[in-house]
Design goal:
- This protein is of the alpha+beta class.
- The protein is 31% helix and 10% strand.
- The chain has helices at residues 20-23, 56-76, and strands spanning 14-15, 27-30, 40-41.
- It is globular.
């Protein structure tokens, strides 16, 4: 098992596209965990023996997409930054 912390959002096995409702809240699925209804946090620090880094552009696009969802949420509840 890896000793350093990783984030699923940076892994090739992570997918935000499987369930849009969960993705909007920062949760996606992992190819290595095929259980139905199991979601992983995109940004939670974890150790994972199966982690394989996604290319930097993919990780950056994922992070930008999640940041856009965060901003939309804040606007919806009347919070301005």
């Amino acid at each position: 098992m890896r000793s350093e912390f990783v984030n699923c959002i940076d892994c090739v096995h992570f997918n935000l596209r499987g369930h849009p409702g969960m993705a909007r809240h920062g949760y996606g699925t992992c190819e290595l965990d095929r259980r139905t209804g199991v979601f992983q946090s995109a940004i939670f620090d974890r150790t994972c023996a199966g982690f394989r880094a996604a290319d930097p552009e993919t990780a950056a696009r994922r992070r930008a997409w999640l940041e856009d969802r965060r901003i939309e949420f804040l606007k919806a509840i009347g919070v301005t930054e």
